[in-house]
Amino acid sequence: MPASDPVRSDIAWSSADTVVVHGKNLCEEVLGTVNLGDFAYLELFGRLPDPDQSVVFNALVVALVEHGLTPSALVTRLTHLGAPESLQGAVAAGLLGLGTTFVGTMEGAARYCAEAAATDTAWRTDDAALEKVADGIVASFLDRRAAVPGIGHPVHKPLDPRAEKLFAIARGHGIDPANERLVRAVRVAAEARTGKVLPVNVTGAIGAVATAMEVPLHVVRGLGVMARAIGLVGHLVEEGNQPVAGHIWREAEERATRR
Amino acid sequence: MPASDPVRSDIAWSSADTVVVHGKNLCEEVLGTVNLGDFAYLELFGRLPDPDQSVVFNALVVALVEHGLTPSALVTRLTHLGAPESLQGAVAAGLLGLGTTFVGTMEGAARYCAEAAATDTAWRTDDAALEKVADGIVASFLDRRAAVPGIGHPVHKPLDPRAEKLFAIARGHGIDPANERLVRAVRVAAEARTGKVLPVNVTGAIGAVATAMEVPLHVVRGLGVMARAIGLVGHLVEEGNQPVAGHIWREAEERATRR
Amino acid sequence: MPASDPVRSDIAWSSADTVVVHGKNLCEEVLGTVNLGDFAYLELFGRLPDPDQSVVFNALVVALVEHGLTPSALVTRLTHLGAPESLQGAVAAGLLGLGTTFVGTMEGAARYCAEAAATDTAWRTDDAALEKVADGIVASFLDRRAAVPGIGHPVHKPLDPRAEKLFAIARGHGIDPANERLVRAVRVAAEARTGKVLPVNVTGAIGAVATAMEVPLHVVRGLGVMARAIGLVGHLVEEGNQPVAGHIWREAEERATRR
Amino acid sequence: MPASDPVRSDIAWSSADTVVVHGKNLCEEVLGTVNLGDFAYLELFGRLPDPDQSVVFNALVVALVEHGLTPSALVTRLTHLGAPESLQGAVAAGLLGLGTTFVGTMEGAARYCAEAAATDTAWRTDDAALEKVADGIVASFLDRRAAVPGIGHPVHKPLDPRAEKLFAIARGHGIDPANERLVRAVRVAAEARTGKVLPVNVTGAIGAVATAMEVPLHVVRGLGVMARAIGLVGHLVEEGNQPVAGHIWREAEERATRR
Fold first, then answer.
1. With CB atoms 3.0 to 4.6 Å apart as the test, which of A98, B113, B151, D131 could cross-link to B88 if both were Cys?
2. Burial of C85 (0-12, 13-18, 19+ CB in 10 A)
């Protein structure tokens, strides 16, 4: 094949006694010293994080791993009920629900942060400009009767403690706080326009910080996917010890077809 | 509902200002200090690893993240070609190939380590017993013309550097080396019976060490699933910059239907 | 590429004005005259069914399409809740539960029919031999404390009307009734050994008739997969008009984390 | 539970000796007389098709079953390579690629047919209005540099024989031809604006006819999902006899990592 073969991947290669991933010798430079979150960073960025980036990136992904008995967790458990031999199938099924409803809000927050940065940067330093940009974002959602991504939570009011913690970690480790300020301004604008209490939630914080760390917009959802794969394995461990899927199924079936 | 409600999960709970996962206050005890691999350990074991366990567990999972352009990576890229809007679908599709052929060998090695420990323990201290147990394991596979899990590699000969490194890390961090000795004895017995060069490979090392760390047998495959979810997101990043799926498809289609 | 190119598929080919599938001109010989079940038969066997085979095969697959609010249907609906933009993801998630628990019983019945035919055929004509083979099958499951596939039902007692109907259709259309007799003998043997009422169920009838029609054992599960894909689309239609997934999730979450 | 229980499904119910699906007695009114395509229609519409609807609906879905070695077929085969024990996983993986790229064009054609009908109906009877509506549709895609759905094909020029056949079947069985005329007018407008040869393709015909049959827009993709599930089982049958996945993988891996 010619050097210009279009079927080419530069992520990994190996010889008899060496494995290299993203330019790192796996055995000499990675195993035993690089934690899983840092290796995930390497997969996304092609380089290892510096110590500050490591702390922030690990925190972002860790915050996404476990959200309790979500629809995804129920799906993984119900799939395991039918195909206990296929752990990968149960986890894959759970991941398929990470679409616009849940993970989409993280992506939505990342998108308005990225778009605000792309079209104008005055808001990064000027409070009046910030308010105007934030209000424009809010209006664009409310005008089409859509929820504003990244704000609001049924339980965590008036503040989502995870969002506050993630912002504090990011600030403490050198991440540009402009996106944090933007999401907080979006909150203020949305509360003013709706009269509701709409705390910046964990997806808003992750969208803002991930974008500040230059995670590409189309990969933001990937943070949720990699994190939740871990959490769903955890749910299968609990389902093995304390099964709920059978109960949920039988009750739903009985209720659904009652005559 | 009564206290005995069978629909119950003890993984996580939250109040307005607190989120608790496996008994840890997420904001105060986890975010900013616990890396992703340690959090995965928490999900599997319900407790955080000690520093030695952290190093070994992170190494095991990191070693599984990236194996180049595997069938799973091809599947994720080809699925993205058809449904670029659904990153979760592309990753889920790739995970579905983590079955008996690839991840099964890790599980197979873990299984014979676990079974050997369950039926007899003399081999843990007695070399003659070790040889006998190992030879029995090898015979049980060869008798049904099956490959012995955890040994052999097309490229990494006479040693798989990842296996050697993982064993060294495990020994250096207090993991009981009995399973390592068992897998190495399996190698010797298999080479004696077959005349082939059959190094302990990375899946053999992971199966052995994970079992020594008390990862339950039915969850061993989960280490591969969580790791590979990360790697598959990485492949989507590269596919975005350097696409190969379209080429592979068009060439395969043209070759397949040539008349 | 040489004529011996291993990347080859003979299912379909096309030119500017012709599409051929399994040797049939799609536009001239298929569209408008071949129904979906017959086309599925063509996909599996490489030839169209004769009129008798058409009736029986369509009945087998139709019987598998819809079983109410099963775990698979719940999974599809819960996945849709999170990713309403990805209908294919919701259906795929539901299919992932078609494993050993549910579809496996159909496969199990097909397997003992196929194995009985492979090892001995006296039972096909001799009643005493039939009883002995059936009792051996039952014993092989009960000895390892497994359920005997293809018999027993929580609701349909003393007969599963679907099984009876499928057997009648098969007999009426020239399918060899030997497997029906075998499954019925398995029922008798199992009831004798357990003292329970264990009607031949729909999966037993399908496994028996599909095997009599020479559906390969490893493809039997495929009948369930293709049928259920249709049923799961139907559940998404109802979920759109009469949503249940959100209720099931919220109730489960509330119950699960009650303190 | 109260009569107003929100967890309710009216698709199916059963008693000891009866199974009812969408109001039909499965054993008395369905099995043995209703083919798979008609049963799929019942799942979507809640009623059986009349004889004309039966012919057209079966033809639409049959036309979607098999498109050769598509990315979905490759994905199913590659997934089978890694997890041969899980037929349902291999099919599910293949379905996950039925997103915007491929099935989306069918949905796109259905959408502009549905939108044209919703905003104005003069085009259904007036040729000048038809041309204007069609040109507006074409312009709306070209203005954002998007391909116009439902037209164009790399091989089937100047006509896609499947589209022509499906339209002929639809006309011959009483389906309102207004959407056919609209898609043909879209073709003319697109060719005029681009100078390219852009035949109405099979997805355009299916989108147009399905919409004329009142398949809801959000379910149009479901026709492709149910059809392709059948086709992917067919590819697994061929992969069992004539495997290609291993070759494609090994060649891709070797080419990709050549140094």
1. A98
2. middle
The C-alpha atoms of residue A237 and residue A252 are separated, in whole angstroms, by 23
Please state at what angle helix B217-241 crosses helix B87-95, rounded to 10 degrees: 130
SS (H, E, C) B168-187: HHHHHCCCCCHHHHHHHHHH
Chain A hits for D256, CB-CB cut-off 8 Å, are 7-9
Chain C nearest-CA residue for B86: C86
Say how many Å lie between the first and final Cα of chain B, rounded: 67
D41-93 confidence digits (pLDDT tens): 999 999 999 999 999 999 999 999 999 999 999 999 999 999 999 999 999 99
Q: What is the mean pLDDT of chain D?
A: 95
| Of B66, B99, B250, B97, the residue nearest A9 (C-alpha) | B66
Per-residue buried b or exposed e for D52-83, using 16+ beta carbons within 10 Å of the residue's own CB = ebbbbbbbbbbbbbbbbbbbbbbbbbbbbbbb
Q: What are phi and psi of B24, to 5 degrees?
A: -100, 135
Q: How far apart (Å, rounded) are the C-alpha atoms in residues D226 and D58?
A: 12
Domain boundaries, chain B: 1-48, 103-215
Taking each helix axis from N to C end, the angle separating B202-212 and B178-194, rounded to the nearest 10 degrees, works out to 150
Measured on CA atoms in the order D93, D96, D97, D102, is the torsion positive or negative? positive
Task: Classify residue A243 by burial, with Cβ atoms within 10 Å: 0-12, 13-18, 19+.
Answer: middle
User: To the nearest whole angstrom, how far is the Cα of A249 from the nearest Cα of chain D?
Assistant: 11
> What pLDDT is attached to residue A259?
56
Task: Report how far residue D5's alpha carbon sits from residue D15's, in angstroms, rounded to the nearest whole number.
Answer: 21
Q: How far apart are the first and last CA of chain A?
A: 67
Residues forming beta bridges with residue A19, ordered by sequence position:
A14
Tokens 């904001």 correspond to: B27
Angle C178-194/C103-119 helices, nearest 10 degrees?
Answer: 110
The residue assigned the tokens 């249709």 is C230
pLDDT tens track for D158-208: 999 999 999 999 999 999 999 999 999 999 999 999 999 999 999 999 999
Q: Is there a contact between A53 and A212 (Cβ–Cβ < 8 Å)?
A: no
Of B83, B92, B103, the CB nearest to D101: B83
Q: Indicate the pLDDT class of residue D121, thresholds 50, 70 and 90.
A: confident
Total residues belonging to chain D:
259
Number of CB atoms found within 10 A of residue C33's CB? 14
Return the amino acid letter for B192. A
Please give the full DSSP string across C24-67, using - where no structure is assigned.
Answer: EEIIIIITTTS-HHHHHHHHHHSSPPPHHHHHHHHHHHHHHH--
| Interchain proximity C71–A85, CB inside 8 Å | no
What is Dmax (Cα atoms) for chain B?
69
Cβ under 8 Å to C: B residues 69-88: 83, 85-86, 88
For B103-215, CATH number out of 3.40.1160.10, 3.40.228.10, 1.10.230.10, 1.10.10.10 equals: 1.10.230.10
* Cα–Cα distance for residue pair C71/D210, rounded to 1 Å: 30
C97 inside 8 A of chain B by CB: no
Residues of chain B with pLDDT under 50: 1-2
Shortest distance between the Cα of D116 and any Cα of chain C, in A, equals 22
Residues D203 and D149 sit within 8 Å (Cβ to Cβ): yes
Q: Looking at per-residue confidence, does A236 or A101 come out higher? A: A236
pLDDT tens, residue by residue, D3-45? 578 999 999 999 999 999 999 999 999 999 999 999 999 999 9
Question: Which among C18, C63, C225 is the nearest to D229, CB-wise?
Answer: C225
Q: Which residues, including other chains, have CB under 8 Å from residue D135's CB and lie 6 or more apart? A: D189, D193
Provide the H-helix boundaries in chain A. 36-45, 51-65, 71-82, 87-95, 103-119, 127-143, 161-172, 178-194, 202-212, 217-241, 245-256
Reduce the DSSP state of residue C7 to 3 states and report it: coil
